[in-house]
Amino acid sequence: MHSILIAAILLASSSLVLGHGQVNRVTVGSIANSGPNQYWAGDAKNKVTATRVMYQASSPAYVLYDDFTDNSKMSCEGSAKSPAPRTISVAAGQELTVYWQGATGELNGQPGTGSLTAYNPWVHAMGFVFDYITSCNGDCTTFDSTNAGWTKIAHAGIDMTQTISNDLRQTMKNKPEPYYPSSGPGLWAMAKMVQQGSAWNIRIPASLESGQYLIRHELAAVHNPKNSDPTTGPQLYIACIQLDVTNGGDRFLPAGTQSNALYLPNGAFANTNVLSSSFNPAKVVIPGPAIWDGVSGGVVNRGVNTTEYVSEERSAGGSAAKHAVHHSRSRARVNRLP
Ligand SMILES: [Cu+2]
Predict the structure, then answer these.
(1) What is the whole-number distance in angstroms between the Cα of residue 290 and the centre of ligand 1?
(2) pTM for the structure as a whole
(3) 140 CA → ligand 1 middle, Å
(4) From 2.70.50.70, 2.40.50.140, 3.40.50.300, 2.40.40.20, which CATH number describes the 2-297 domain?
(5) Is pLDDT of 55 > 80?
(6) CA 79 to the chain's CA centroid
């Protein structure tokens, strides 16, 4: 009995390797910016994209728990030092929409995927969605994000006030990754995303000062629970999108959390087991730092007296002081513009 179950799980795990995907495009209002071609750098759209190249569909296809402490991989899936050539303009307080595309056609035209047929829908339906942001300290197209401090602006786990559609539940049953909870309430953020046409909205905080920022938009699929095999556990798909935020408010971001400190390789998140008989969707905790309140960090100094401002921040602690000094420098640069 048990060996049959184990064999079934192993079979399921091996076929899951074919999943995955990437950003199809990012939109702001009626403006669309295509994601890059991950497989051919010479593609013309790679010269005009604002989304950094992610891993391809084959190994490595996503970030696993062994790499949760790796700043280079965790910041932008290997593109920390490989920026995209463009930025997308978005006003503070406005939304951008990220459209994901599956690398394979498993869900193409399938019920419950938001009638998306122009390209492959995203292929996983259980997991978290996280949105982080960091300042590019100037130009995102030259910004090395390896040691960036990330501020969380949104996250979603499993919504117990909602239920997956019967259509998507049935569609996932036809894959080797049936949906859990197998009945009753509990809508994973990733299922919600698939149901709405593999799209996810991200609202830029209205208080955020104008400037260039990198969004770290992250899907964390949990269909393949962790065991002794290092290729199991949550699969992180990390899209870094370069933004030019306009009409900003008067706040700058706090120092944030480096990507190698967001999640523990052996914490509750890494050990999420949707297949366990003891899995309780109501007890799922969203990992990572708290969502930014839109206030802490600091007030942008639009005057010329940056020295006084820096000394105020210094009393708040080392990293904040460092950040404040950096900000004062960028203020000074901004102030020189006509
Ligand atoms: Cu996948």
Answers:
(1) 27
(2) 0.86
(3) 28
(4) 2.70.50.70
(5) yes
(6) 14
